[in-house]
Specification:
By secondary structure, the chain is an alpha/beta fold. The chain has one domain: Alpha-Beta Barrel (TIM Barrel), CATH 3.20.20. Helix content is 40%, strand content 16%. It has 13 helices and nine strands. The chain has an eight-stranded parallel barrel, surrounded by five helices. Helix 11 runs parallel beside helix 13. It starts with 6 loop residues before the first strand and ends with a helix. Bound molecules: (3S,4R)-3-hydroxy-2-oxopiperidin-4-yl beta-D-xylopyranoside (XIL). (3S,4R)-3-hydroxy-2-oxopiperidin-4-yl beta-D-xylopyranoside binds next to loops.
Length: 329
């Protein structure tokens, strides 16, 4: 059992992994999901493209299946996500070309109130805004992703005002939910998290109901590990915010046989452990979520020339990283 109120969670894609399965006859996947985790995050089901595929069409099937699964097993749910530059439906991208800021605002407000309102009271944390800030190596450097995000692009005169409004609408619809900013490469103290620190201060000074900062925790053994994660979490906690690790996985380049080396396996467990320890050390850390628990469902091989990123193999064999996370607590 996790100490204090720290939730250990997993992402799950309701549409793919829960819908169409008989709850009386759960799959091995579902048994592990129910037994091992106290919190679920919809991997895709609450993203715009899935939940709002046409202007007047909402498709709640995947998200509803996830909520029902969580309820049946006494699990909490982290909502993900309301404002993001990626996985927006075609109609948004097309309409955005001619949007005024008011039009973009109206579309966004209607969506936020509809989605948040539907699940109000049942979502303990929301990743309200996802990946708002560019990386140092992106064109233009560390700054808001204003052009890439159709809503922010339409309101480029004052994107921060729109970001604040999304938090306000979410809070009005679901006053109990803890509302997060969330991003990758946001674990340690770096130029990107400096920008988030400034953004968080600005939003809080404006009275925006911002309550949390989430570090996704998508790591790769190709890169070094930034040891300053605890220090980073502490500075956000000192602003009065909660913090969380929201999408942890630790991927690695694999040899020709597709297998990791013993050294990589040990190093993976160590990286998971370091993220977990930072969360355990900072009282404001509320949740530690893995972005899927089995390699068979991991998003990593689809996107990176890497793999072995989760805590269990495709056959649900426990890796050392599993022991770190689920047996050390
Ligand atoms: C990923 C999903 O895991 C994939 O299934 C999907 O095809 C693309 O998105 N950061 C995020 C997540 O905030 O929403 C992303 O999820 C992974 C990176």
């Amino acid at each position: 059992e996790a100490p204090r109120d720290l939730q250990i969670g997993s992402a799950v894609w309701g549409q793919r992994d829960l819908l169409g399965h008989d709850p009386q006859d759960p799959t091995a996947f579902q048994q592990i999901l129910a037994a091992e985790f106290g919190s679920l995050t919809p991997e895709n089901d609450m993203k715009w493209a899935e939940i709002h595929p046409e202007p007047d069409v909402y498709d709640f099937a995947g998200a509803d299946a996830l909520m029902a699964f969580a309820q049946a097993h006494g699990q909490e749910v982290r909502g993900h996500t309301l404002l993001w530059h990626s996985q927006n439906p075609g109609w948004v991208t097309e309409a955005a070309a001619t949007w005024t800021c008011d039009e973009a605002r109206d579309v966004l407000e209607d969506h936020v109130r509809t989605v948040v309102g539907r699940y109000a009271g049942d979502i303990y944390e929301w990743d309200v805004a996802n990946e708002l800030v560019q990386d140092e190596w992106d064109a233009g450097g560390v700054r808001l992703r204003t052009e890439a995000n159709p809503f922010l692009a339409a309101c480029s005169d004052d994107p921060v005002a729109l970001i604040g409004d999304v938090f306000r609408w979410t809070h009005e619809e679901d006053p109990e939910s803890v509302l997060f900013l969330n991003d990758y490469n946001a674990e340690g103290v770096n130029a990107k998290t400096d920008a988030y620190y400034a953004l968080a201060q600005e939003l809080l000074a404006d009275g925006v109901p911002l309550h949390g900062f989430g570090a996704q925790g998508h790591l790769s053994l190709q890169y070094g590990f930034d040891e300053s994660i605890q220090e980073n979490f502490e500075r956000f906690a000192d602003l009065g915010l909660k913090v969380a690790v929201t999408e942890a996985d630790v991927r690695m380049p694999l040899g020709e046989d597709g297998e990791p080396t013993a050294e990589q396996i040990a190093l993976q467990a160590e990286r998971y452990d370091k993220m977990l320890q930072a969360c355990l050390e900072v009282a404001a850390c509320t949740s530690f979520t893995v972005w899927g628990f089995d390699d068979g469902r991991s998003w990593v091989p689809d996107v990176f020339p890497e793999g072995y990123a989760t805590i269990m193999t495709e056959a649900y064999e426990k890796k050392p990283a599993y022991d770190v996370l689920l047996e050390s607590l």
